[in-house]
Amino acid sequence: MTLPWTRLNASTSTATATRAGPAEEGEGLRCATEMSHNYVRYEELAAAQSASDGLPPRRCCGGVRRALGWVFGNGLHEHRVIRLNAKRPTTRRHCRNVINNQKFSLLTFFPKVLYEQFKFFFNLYFLVVAISQFFPPLKVGFLFTYIAPLAFVLVITMVKEAHDDLKRWLSDRKLNGETYERLCAGGRVERVPSSQIRVGDLIAVQTNQRVPADLVLLRTTEQSGTVFLRTDQLDGETDWKLRVAVPSCQRLDTNHALQSLAATLYAAAPTKDIYEFIGELSTPADGATAAAVAAGAHAQASPGGAGGGGGGGMAAPLAEPLGLENTMWCNTVLASGTAIGAVVYTGDETRCMMNASATPTKVAGLDLQINFLAKILFCFTVSLAALMVLLPPGHSPSLVLKALAFSRFVLLFSSIVPISLRVSLEMAKVTYALHMFQDEGMKGAIVRSSSISEELGGIEYLLTDKTGTLTRNEMVFRKLHLGNHCLTSSGLDEVSGLLRDAWLAEAAGEAPPPLAAQARDALLAIALCHNVSPVAGGHSYQGASPDELALVMFAASCGLLLIARDLRHIVLRRVSDGAELAYEILQEFPFSSESKRMGIVLRSRQTGELSFYAKGADVVMAEKVARSYWLEEEVGNLAREGLRTLVVARRRISEPAYRQFEAELQAARLAKSAALRDQGVRGCVERLEVEMELLCLTAVEDLLQPHVQQTLEKLRNANVRTWMLTGDKLETAMVIAQNASLVPRGGAFYPLVARTALEALQKLRGYPQGVMHAPCLLVDGTSLELCLANHQVLFLEVACAAPAVVCCRCSPTQKGQIVRLIRTHTGKCTAAIGDGGNDIPMIREAHVGIGIEGKEGKQASMAADFSLLEFSHLQRLVLWHGRNAYLRSSLLAQFVIHRGLIIAMIQAVFSSLFFFASIAVYNGFLTVGYATIFTTGPVFSLVLDEDISQENALKYPELYKELQKRRHLSLKTFLIWTWKAIYQGGVIMLGAIFLFDKRLVHVVGISFTSLILTELVMVAVEVKRWHTIMIACEVLTLLVYAGSIFALSSPTLLGTSTFDLPFMLSVEFLWKVSAITAVSCVPVWVGKVFSQRLAPEKATKIR
């Protein structure tokens, strides 16, 4: 069986058609076969394309090619030819239209969860310890003692994973179960769930309904032939997108005619690019139905038919190029009307699924530090166990007995590596996220990655976007420059008067004054050259660009109102006399980041005059317009005022010139290759953009976000170096940096503008490093590229030494590259904040990614670790919540380690005093109770501690500098806490042995009670600001332990008495415990007080 048909370019248009396959392929295949003599087999086209790319022709069967694609990743996705309304629309099987975001299945849940848990050192270590207790020679206590902590961690993790996966499954089932109308051949309509939609189906989508697959828009109920889509779930942009129905299908009278139409739809191979689509729809020239075309094909194929290549055959089909404007991507929402589309991509081949990449896993530096300390603790455990085996004097036992004793001691000292540490930290991270969510000062904050909350407490480099992040992305029109006259937003009456003068002069048949004519032409261009649509009768507007909205609203305020806009027409109204100006849209070339401009070809309904309007960035438009003496100077002046500029130009076109242009453009759009199509269209437009008439220069202001200046000043005082990475002009970025206080008052700039590598090197060497009040480094895009390519190390040294850096004309890739280089060069903690899709690369590269929900949508917010509504919330997030998260986790981690070390030291002292016997001093219930109900509450309550008040943390941002040194959890502090544990464990056990007089059970009671009281006292010593919950935890823990003394003194519970109740109620017990606890805690407390007196922290002074 051969593959479907596709059209070659004009050079192969004389090729004769051959049969596509056997008769059993159905009427739809025969229809496609005989539709045109200009079609050839897809295999021949693929071979020709492969040869042009330097690849061997693909002649293997589809199954083999797909199999190779799974292995090598280059043959899985293929372009396709779809026969609409055919019994078998395609000859290949495509992906099922099923959304599956689940992480696990019933079969893989337990294996995957267990693997994810036991790849960590902590869990794997305790798994080995727990398994060892099944072997009698290694058993040192109750199996429950070692199984319970591990089981608790696993159960909590499994419940969390199962809950999250269940939510994903329910969400997927809801989406897959949504029903849609499927239009079948012959006029039949049926409702099908989304999961049963296939490539080639005609699907009807209603208003506010999710688009279930990638569709080509064929027909809509809107008279304009256009619909609006909400794409915020796809690209993060909140502005509605205009989509256009295929003209030949829109012209059909009814949907029934569409269901009977014989057409062949070509779609390029699916890609991740949501801004590009290459396709073509071929329909019979006479609009024949599928049945009629099939009958004609059968007649031509019969011996007596008038087939062959003669003129009696069917007319060549009409080919219409399809582009992005004809598509409706999956997971967008239809905002208006009813749309009927042909399914071209399903399931994993849709744009949204192909762009669904997992967010990179980020690990907090504190977690890495704790992992390192855990390895030290493990080595300490092994060393201590080895000492217990090697120290005993006398006859040396066999190697086997030594190995057995060593293993038992490792198990007895297993608390040195506390499994509860990971549980405590995970619960603490959840608590921090809850505090951020409940903070009234940063409403709307969302924590999407709670695992890196501690990184907020040590940020040294902040990289920020400009538009929408430091500014509101709310454009306000400021100036209209006409060359010899500048009109401002404050002089609307003057502009309106000029327009009136121009209209009155035209009505009288006179030439308007020069300035009035200039103002009229400029405002007319502003009101026509855009992609804005009026809403609610022209009282408001909807558009993809805030700049365009500001310009159209300015034209309306001056008396030139946009009242109607559809696919083919624009209607303006002159407010002065109510006259309407109608224009026919012949061609439109939307703005793109590559072209940096847009254009539109219009025909006036009143005069029939053809005009081409264009507007764009000055760097591009300066080459398109006729030479101007004032353009470059005024662009620089407006940029220095912090204004965003656009150059507007016009060219009048004759009818013959337009016809030639239209033919060339249509030929370029029919190219099958995306590269050839883009190149052809770009060439046609560039030939039109020659010697254009410069009409005006517009200037709009992007308002600053609230409290930006105060936020950046506080971050600068906190020793956070801020880099601004923007795609805007150098002059504009410099003004915004000054206005936003990125550069301090009176601060200077050091412009690094170079065009050669040597010039860039000289500029870098000339930067005054190490001087007080060093200037802000100002780099443009070209110079940045030169520096990164030729002088990367020197550039990073200079830039990292600067108090602030501004990089202009930055691409998204460069933003991500800069963040990555700072991370690798300095090793310092970085944070990136932005609001648009172009900021995602740097957000993902930074240690901490922060997204702002702004005018550009939620794309950056969804990709970030933390989401904010305003830039000013950053100061609370970093200076307050970041501070608390780092300090609390540091203290909590060291306290949990101390808790495990102290009981291990008690065990070591006990074993060494009793002939180095590997016997547990405490039974399993006491060991488990010590790590849970007897200490967890007070220890975990440390996550509520505050070293200073929130007011002081924000008032004195200089305190943040201490956190950047990362001294609160270091090898030094770890050794201090280790020494505390060794001292206190030794004192408790030696004190209990020294005061022991009658029974061993008294040693257990005295030492364990002293151990619990020591932990409670140590918590009280470390607390800096008492919280009600802390006091409650201390009191409740004491009460619980007191109750457990009675319970564990009863032989009926454990079969033997753990405590001697009469002794523990005696005065003798109380004074012995009090004495041991005092000796254990008082020296530690005194040492802490002396250290604070001799070298107090800055926070202590303020507190």
From TrEMBL:
Protein's recorded name: Phospholipid-transporting ATPase
Amino-acid positions noted as binding Mg(2+) in the UniProt annotation, renumbered to this chain: 465, 467, 835, 839
Domain P-type ATPase A: 182-222
Cofactor or coenzyme needed: Mg(2+)
Biased composition annotated in UniProt, kind: Low complexity: 10-20
Domain P-type ATPase C-terminal: start-end pairs: 862-1096
Keywords assigned: ATP-binding, Lipid transport, Magnesium, Membrane, Metal-binding, Nucleotide-binding, Translocase, Transmembrane, Transmembrane helix, Transport
Pfam families: E1-E2_ATPase, Hydrolase, PhoLip_ATPase_C, PhoLip_ATPase_N
Entry annotation: catalytic residues: 465
Transmembrane spans: 118-135, 141-159, 372-391, 403-421, 896-919, 925-944, 974-994, 1000-1021, 1028-1049, 1069-1091
GO molecular function: ATP binding; ATP hydrolysis activity; ATPase-coupled intramembrane lipid transporter activity; magnesium ion binding
Assigned protein family: Belongs to the cation transport ATPase (P-type) (TC 3.A.3) family. Type IV subfamily.
Main location: membrane
Enzyme class of the recorded protein, top EC level: translocase
Catalytic activity as recorded in UniProt: ATP + H2O + phospholipidSide 1 = ADP + phosphate + phospholipidSide 2
E.C. number(s) listed in UniProt: 7.6.2.1
One GO location term (cellular component): endosome
GO biological process: endocytosis; phospholipid translocation; retrograde vesicle-mediated transport, Golgi to endoplasmic reticulum
Span list, region Disordered: 1-27
